[in-house]
Amino acid sequence: MTKAFEGINEKNQKKLLRMLEANVYHYKKNSNILSTIKNVNMIGIITKGYIQITRSNDNGSRTIIEEVEEEEIFGTFISSLKSKDYEIITKEDTDIIMIDYDLLIQNNFRNCEYYHQFIKNMFEFVTKKIQEKNERIEILTQKSIRNKLLEYFNIMFKKTGSKYIYLPFTFMDLADYLAVDRSAMSRELKNLKEEGFIEIKGKKITLCYDKNSSIYMGL
Amino acid sequence: MTKAFEGINEKNQKKLLRMLEANVYHYKKNSNILSTIKNVNMIGIITKGYIQITRSNDNGSRTIIEEVEEEEIFGTFISSLKSKDYEIITKEDTDIIMIDYDLLIQNNFRNCEYYHQFIKNMFEFVTKKIQEKNERIEILTQKSIRNKLLEYFNIMFKKTGSKYIYLPFTFMDLADYLAVDRSAMSRELKNLKEEGFIEIKGKKITLCYDKNSSIYMGL
DNA sequence: TCTCATTTGTTGCAATTGCAACATTATTTT
DNA sequence: AAAATAATGTTGCAATTGCAACAAATGAGA
User: What percent of chain B has pLDDT over 90?
Assistant: First the structure.
């Protein structure tokens, strides 16, 4: 059972999905699925697999808007998916429950206990998304690559409490996430290494500084 | 009646607020109110006035995280307000209803109609916030000042359908929003003017290009 | 209306960054 | 295991940007 249905027993889950006219889709790995859902305000609940939402510029470069893992949700109300620039790609064989957002938010299910529970679950997903986006904004508003990296490290440190950071994605994706040129980021990481602030082994980065360090003065 | 209580009559509104142990605060203009709410997960509903949420760096510069207008909501779940770097400043005499987020999300009010309605209203606020944050991220991920400006203009254009953009804030604040140096932005605006793509009169910017224009090639 | 404070415009300069191109190392596929 | 593909490291160079400093314009308050 996914978190989206927490507090709703299986029987009511089925009732709920019928009520919301939900559809279950099964996609193969590396499918572009946006075309199948484009024209509606929808919520997708990923019950198996995971997806990447990307946006491509006219010059061809592509940016990851977000990755949505198993058990998580996505939708037109979370990312604007309506332009042709967007793609939703399954990175594994993926199952998705699609729900019409407008139907969900309509007022027709007033006395339905599990409906309210579901809304509340959605609410919690959405507040989590907001926090993720806030983090990204805090990083993106930093004016130098160095400070973007340090802000990213800070956030990871606060989350895990550990000075060992395991990148959840490649360095290419990190550059993308920070919205900087990959090679320029690579250069800056090298600087930080040479100045003794960090160590890097594969995707594991070790922070060798603390709050009192001189590196914090600029931030 | 604020949108937060849409679909809830006044009597039930009062019941709801009592149930949620809501407090109403009255602040004078230019008060720093964060200290009064810091330690809880809270939602604030602004019934009168408006506020600015800012974050200051160690070097003293301050960034506007968001402006929250009358009728809108804010809270620890929307912006992380827990660090000392944040400030919430009232820009007018302001009334705020404070609600404990954890209490709101608890499961004790199962059969309460207006409670569910309220959650749903909050849900819609929050999805709107997400979309605002998505917009900002799309802007911030642009790699040049020019492209940030153009992306900003695009978004404003899409919202209003008009080529006349009235800046809702000062150019200083715009630089802040785009996370670029003000003078560098000013320089770039001048370039765009001289190349004939825009006109500027005070806070009114006119777009002199369209989708087919060469200016779009890079974007 | 005058004064003071804030915002906006401008410019030179140094530092940072993006870009392109290529070498090297990992990873995946056959 | 070999070959193909993808990711990472590196560097020079030109373009962009941030920073600082100051002038001009605008707006707010006395």
Answer: 50
CA of A56 to C1' of D20 (A): 38
Contact B59 A123 (CB under 8 A): no
To the nearest whole angstrom, how far is the Cα of A127 from the nearest Cα of chain B? 6
The tokens for B28 are 């004078």
Phi, psi (5° rounding) for residue B151?
A: -65, -40
pTM: 0.90
Of residues A47 and B80, the one with the higher pLDDT is A47
Please list every residue in chain A whose beta carbon sits closer than 8 Å to the beta carbon of residue B123: 105, 119, 122-123, 126
| Residue-by-residue pLDDT tens, chain A, 219 positions | 678 999 999 999 999 999 888 999 998 877 888 877 756 788 999 998 888 888 776 555 667 788 888 899 998 877 777 677 788 888 888 899 999 888 888 766 767 888 888 988 998 899 889 999 999 999 999 999 999 999 999 999 999 999 999 999 999 999 999 999 999 999 999 999 999 999 999 999 999 988 767 666 544
Domains and CATH numbers, chain B: 3-132 (2.60.120.10), 142-217 (1.10.10.10)
What 3 state SS string does chain B have? Answer: CCHHHCCCCHHHHHHHHHHCCCEEEEECCCCECHHHCCCCCEEEEEEECCEEEEEECCCCCEEEEEEECCCCEEECCCCCCCCCCEEEEECCCEEEEEEEHHHHHCCCCCCCHHHHHHHHHHHHHHHHHHHHHHHHHHHHCCCCHHHHHHHHHHHHHHHHCCCEEECCCCHHHHHHHHCCCHHHHHHHHHHHHHCCCEEEECCEEEECCCCCCHHHCCC
User: Which bases of strand C sit closer than 7 A to a protein CB?
Assistant: 7-12, 16-21, 27
Q: How many Å apart are A29 CA and D1 C1'?
A: 28
Give the span between the Cα atoms of A12 and A18, in whole angstroms.
Answer: 10
Residue carrying structure tokens 């400043």: B89
The C-alpha atoms of residue A61 and residue A15 are separated, in whole angstroms, by 44
Place of tokens 């249905």: A5
In the predicted model, is pLDDT for residue B58 greater than 80? no
CA dihedral B153, B154, B159, B161 (to 10 degrees): 90
